[in-house]
Amino acid sequence: MKRARIFLFALIALNLVFTSCDKVEEPIKPAILLDTTLYPGNWEDYVTPTFAANTNTDRNILLEDYTGHRCPNCPAAGWEAYNIEQANTDRVFVASVHAAPSGLSSFQTTASDCGQASNPNNKYCSIFYCDEGIEYGQTFGGGSYGFFGNPQGNLNRINFTGTDMFQFYTEWQGKVTDILTANDLKVNIQAQSNFYTETNGLFLHTEVEFLEDLSANSYNMVVYLIEDEVIDYQDSSSIAVSYYHHHDILRGCIDDLTWGRSISSDNAQGSKVYLDYSYKLPDGELNTDYHLLIYVYDVATYEILQVIKHEF
Questions:
Q1: Alpha-carbon distance 131 to 88, whole Å?
Q2: How many CB atoms lie within 10 A of CB 114?
Q3: Start-end of H helices in the chain
Q4: Sorting pLDDT into bands at 50, 70 and 90, what band is 12?
Q5: Which residues are registered as beta bridge partners of 230?
Q6: Cβ–Cβ < 8 Å for 312, 226
Q7: Where does the pLDDT of residue 82 fall: very low under 50, low under 70, confident under 90, or very high at 90 and above?
């Protein structure tokens, strides 16, 4: 079950019918309708952030670690992902995706006796998977992308040889080094947001800038909701560890769109695209326990051109 929902609607239609020739002085703002009830005041007072020139020159990396809380070999991969991220705190960002090539396997599902006397500590009863992760697993499972079991992962979903988008964790560091060294930056992303504790509501504003002419292909933006850490059970070499630190857990996409939103059809060099989102964090959850990973990818190849981390 999804823990996140978003109220996101289509662009405002511009074909308005007027009964007079009076000029409209103040158009509705912003250009995309958002869930204005998340703003704890008069919506007309809401200030949409503006963006300065983006001076970033670095291509970042999204490391997607496909894992499971009942996977005995997954902790080694999880800690490798964590260590790589800590060594490259501004360049590498991890999403722990609890999914298998089939979508779900016994590694991701909960125990059958949760809430029963036979399982007084509710061992393996927390749900770490999400609908989006399941769909990713099903899409990438099989021979075309090299994802055949947990633990495996990918780096910017780059298909290095045509069949190995996914690798074992022992290969991640070398490929991270290669990507950072090449630093092939074609797209820049910026994000600003306003969060209101009164409503647990978020307004996210993004800017995508194309640094090369990429008009030949189509590109989408995806916004991951990532939970920083959960301490809970994990199978580690067939031992049930109750105090395991689960890091960077994918909880879904804030707009419920697994494959994101289309950016534009004209992605010429120098063009900029702006996408806005509204999102309500579930009641009882704290924004300080979460962050967003925002990325742009090539729809044809799934390769991620740029990713940024955003605290809200």
A1: 29
A2: 14
A3: 74-87, 131-140, 172-182
A4: very low
A5: 246
A6: no
A7: very high
